[in-house]
Design brief:
This protein is about 35% helix and about 10% strand. By secondary structure, the chain is an alpha/beta fold. The chain has helices spanning about 1-20, 25-30, 35-45, 45-55, 65-75, 155-165, 210-215, 245-255, 275-285, 300-315, 335-340, 345-360, 375-385, 395-400, 420-425, 430-455, 480-485, and strands at about 95-100, 140-145, 170, 185-190, 220-225, 240, 260, 290-295, 320-325, 365-370, 390, 465-470, 475-480. The chain is built from 17 helices and 13 strands. Helix 7 (about 210-215) crosses helix 9 (about 275-285) and helix 10 packs parallel to helix 12 (about 345-360).
Length: about 500
């Protein structure tokens, strides 16, 4: 019997070899029949081989193994410490050092709003300066950034929203509209992109009536965000392939079945600074909610004009979310991901300084995003003037993402960025929501600890004088010397006064 099996195997190999020799599409398979096929298989699993066997703990991008391990351990509530000291090159150019105070803020004197010892409410209130009817104080300075239903599957969105509710932070919808899976109780920021998904009338045009109706139906929507661009692909519209436009997606986005779901690269509702202010004010007037802007930054002439017009009119966005070019959610052409839009620190200080010189930076709420999901990076962002940070890929990792780099293929091995029912079945919503909440709380706990170490009670009290950067061989300079400005004072007085709004 064994010889029959052997003969069958050899016969099959012979047929494969003959096919390889006769085909002319792949030179490697033609010149090395059968054996050449291993080249393509090894290429296919190359990222996994490098991730687990070849690359060292600090080598991979965009997140190295040490960073991912910290996220996973924090999300699971495990020991996220490291032993035997730092393995970073602390004299490397740009390396940040957080300056500890001689007399830290005593942790036994810390006051926390509510019952959560990791709670860090935002000091500022969205919409207060412009007198919105429904202003909003975010209850957490660490929040979940925009990732659309469609780009992420229903289980992933559900886990993030339930986790956000448990951690008492907000959940940004991404430009794919407010889905049923964004409605498990967390505060929601509804992002409206260039496709106006979920805010369209029957003709596919933006509709204030539709927006008003949705706001009335979903009370957990606390703010609206107009997305001009994002760090992964600024100046390019999104594409959700026809195969992913299932009936549920079509209903959520108000788009037809049977065709790709496209978002343009620019807004048709506003094409100038004054037009953008008009667009913002029309939404705010109708809904009463704060309205903000998300953008990746390149040229700055627009921002100069916008700041001047906002000062003159005393109108405009209630907040700005500045997204660094290192942001990564959303599949993008390699050139866009690598070379378009400034990285976060450069982008933020250029825009912030414009509004500071005009004299209205203190009246706005500032959000940072783009690979800020680690306490040290958040401290730098807060010192530069951010009031909040919004994190995306790090939140994805807290619910199981393993950085397989397959987000754009529909074949995500952990069921996070796919619509496949089979692949999503392995993502346990209840378990992963707990891990998301545990990660956010653990993140905030470390932020509070760093603030206390520097002598502060609230992390937003960090200033550019509290951070030093390596700028050369044995040379360090304060962040103030590097960026050339000091952010407006946080205005913090007491945690007890940061009550919900």
């Amino acid at each position: 019997m064994w010889w029959m099996v052997l003969a069958s195997v050899l016969g099959f190999i012979g047929l494969v070899a003959l096919f390889d020799i006769l085909q002319t599409k792949h030179a490697v398979k033609h010149n090395y029949p059968v054996i050449g096929r291993f080249r393509y298989w090894l290429e296919m699993i190359g990222p996994e081989l490098r991730q687990y066997w070849v690359a060292d703990d600090k080598e991979e991008q965009p997140f190295n193994r040490a960073e991912r391990s910290w996220i996973y351990a924090t999300a699971k509530g495990q020991n996220n410490y490291q032993g035997f000291g730092s393995n970073e090159v602390q004299y490397a150019i740009g390396y940040p050092i957080i300056k500890n105070a001689v007399l830290p803020f005593p942790e036994d004197k810390a006051v926390y709003p509510g019952d959560d010892p990791t709670a860090i409410p935002c000091i500022k209130i969205m919409g207060q300066f412009h007198g919105r009817r429904r202003p909003y104080r975010p209850t957490s300075i660490v929040n979940i950034s925009g990732m659309s239903f469609g780009a992420l599957g229903r289980n992933a969105i559900s886990a993030l929203n339930k986790g956000a509710k448990m951690a008492n932070c907000y959940h940004n919808t991404g430009e794919g509209a407010v889905s049923p899976y964004h409605q498990f109780g967390a505060d929601v920021v509804w992002q409206i992109g260039t496709g106006y998904f979920g805010a369209r009338d029957k003709n596919g045009k933006f509709s204030l009536d539709v927006v008003e109706e949705k706001i009335a139906d979903i009370p957990n929507i606390r703010a609206i965000e107009i997305k001009l661009s994002q760090g992964a692909k600024p100046g390019r519209g999104g594409v959700l392939p026809e195969v992913k436009v299932v009936p549920e997606i079509a209903r959520t986005r108000h788009v037809p079945m049977g065709q790709d779901c496209l978002s343009p690269n620019a807004h048709i509702e506003s094409d100038s600074p004054d037009g953008l202010i008009d667009f913002v004010e029309s939404i705010a007037d109708r809904t009463g909610l704060p309205v903000g802007i998300k953008a990746a930054i390149g040229e700055t002439n627009f921002w100069y004009e916008l700041a001047e017009r906002m000062r003159a009119r005393k109108e405009g966005p209630d907040y700005f979310q500045i997204d660094g070019g290192e942001g990564g959610t959303g599949a993008a052409p390699m050139t866009y991901a690598d070379h378009v839009a400034l990285p976060f620190k450069i982008a933020f200080y250029r825009v912030y300084c414009i509004f500071q010189k005009v004299g209205i930076s203190q009246d706005l709420l500032w959000i940072g995003s783009g690979k800020l999901g680690f306490p040290d990076r958040t401290v730098v962002a807060l010192a530069m003037g951010c009031d909040l940070v919004a994190i995306a890929r790090e939140a994805m990792m807290s619910i199981g993402c393993i950085q397989a780099m397959a987000c754009h293929t529909g074949h995500c091995p952990t069921g996070v960025t796919t619509m496949s029912k089979w692949r999503q079945a392995g993502l346990n919503i209840d378990l992963k929501s707990i891990r998301c909440a545990t990660f956010i709380r653990g993140f905030r706990k470390e932020l509070l600890s760093l603030a206390h170490t520097a002598g502060y009670q609230h992390p937003a009290q960090f200033t550019v004088d509290d951070i030093e950067l390596s700028v050369g061989v044995n040379k360090f300079a304060t962040l103030r010397e590097v960026v050339g400005y000091c952010a407006d004072p946080a205005g913090f007085t007491s945690m007890k006064k940061l009550t919900p709004v």
